[in-house]
Records
---
Amino acid sequence: MRAPIVGGGLIFTGGENVYGENGYSKTDIERVLPVTFDSKRPPQSIAMIVVLDKSGSMGTLEMALAREATKAPLTVLRDKDHFGVVAFDSNFYWAVPLQTAANREPIKAEINKILAGGETNAYPALEAAY
């Protein structure tokens, strides 16, 4: 006669799609395992600073294209992300001080005000952005 089975085991493997609310979080599988599937990392955000050449070498068309390219990331940044613009010729200034990307329309309005002119000195603008 065989002895009754009194134990058992479970081997579980998973990839990148098993964690968080779209995975096995708060399911029976999570309840029987000695781990949880909740993501413990706080939500991440990014900060993006565009350093924009507005010197006299930027013609009308080039400046228009540069302004549009500077505004483009605002379509994919989340509201909690941060965005800023440092414009430079021989001097630099914060055309858009670093702020949340939720302020999309005011940010775009400030970018539209950037006009070409002056000499070129990129290093101070890059240092300010850094």
---
Amino acid sequence: NRSARRMFAGELADFFHAPMSVVATDDMEHPFRQTQALKQLHEGQVHSFECQVRARDGRLFWVVGNAVASATGVGPREYTFALLDIDRRRQAEERARQAQASVQHIIESAPLAIAVCDADDLAIAIINQAGASAAGQDAMQLLGVPLPEVFPEWGVLGMERDARAALRQRSLSMHEYRFIRHGQQLTWELRFMPLEQGPRGQPQLLVLATDVTDQRAAQAAQLEAAIA
């Protein structure tokens, strides 16, 4: 039909009596080359596939399709192919995959503790090595665990409340939490940044955490020196 002629950049005469593999890629496992699979179909059965095809002008694109077997009553069996061009969808998926890989690389290489949490339950979806080291646990073991449970000291100080407020307001917020760990007074600065569409394609919360204990002590010393 007209859509197929436009899809493959040709007219009926360009394809008449040619095998379907004329628009297949060089992949020997390509669905258009698997004639045996079609021969095993009963009348009315559908064979579904997703593959890359090549138009007459050399353009490569992805399609999803069905092949339906039908008996004409006379002559050999026929197969009807229905194809949908999904190249834009595949390109969008690839861009999303590359973006996620880039985000993952940035998160892993950053010196500060970073975690990406699901918006509904604050369960950790991504955490870098710095964040896992701050929690004193292995990064893989923290996946799926709510952030307040990973850092109970912060949770007691209202971290979940502040995170929820940032999600509701859809704005960046910054908070400091002072607590005692192993007998040492620590100060951590946390920034909450809501993500309308996180790496997983759903609302998430980006959490940036920095140990500012030494920095705050230096600032306090400077202030005391200035007062003196």
---
Amino acid sequence: GSPIPRPSAAAGDQATMETDLQLLVAAIRGAAERTQVPRYRSPWLPALGEKIALDAVPAVQGEPRPGDPTGRLPAIPFGLEDLPEIQTQAPLVLDLEHGSHLLVAGAPRSGRTTALRTIAGSIAVRTSSRDVHLYVLDCGNAAMLPLADLPHCGAVVSRDQVDRTDRLLTVLINEIGRRQVLLAQDGYGSLAEQRAAAPPEERLPCLVFLLDRWEGFMASFDELDGGRLTQNVLRILREGPSVGLRAVIAGDRSALIGRLPAA
């Protein structure tokens, strides 16, 4: 029935005191080391690093090499994704053959433009300029302009070049129409079928359209000429996948609502 004596404040900070739980854990660890019990496998993989070089992303197994004689196009890795449910980390890829468009959303300085530049660099490393053509619309701070030096790149247009922006979108729409006719005439259902059946000199290249800062595009062109340029982009998104055009669009949260994600 006697009360348990409490330690006085002079006994020291309780945060630094050794507890029964700490003694128990230390004893278990010491016993495991003496009996050479192996360390148990962690239920999760190590965390992803702050920066991951493109060369550090593991290759996708079974992907064709540049200039593959079958006409197949490799998947384009541009990141590493963590999948804790299945305890694995796999390459994050843009599927040029069987995938669709990609939307990269985030706040300013969250890496949206870096993602687009990484995709362009990965395309240049892993494909031939005869197999993939790149077109860029830069509505940001001109960070995409260096991509014009890539042999795959047909044009890099900034948002202050209104006439060039109009021409670029018109060229892409016209090319979509031309390919729809060609594929229908020969009975192909997709670009992958055409590339697999046609001789190398007649294979159609895949088209990749990069648009940086959707919110900048909307601010500059949504009300221009009754929104015609915005409608042209949405048409490219709707009709492009069936003829081998893949679009990658980066923007803020406004890109996740409205007409863009529906297309």
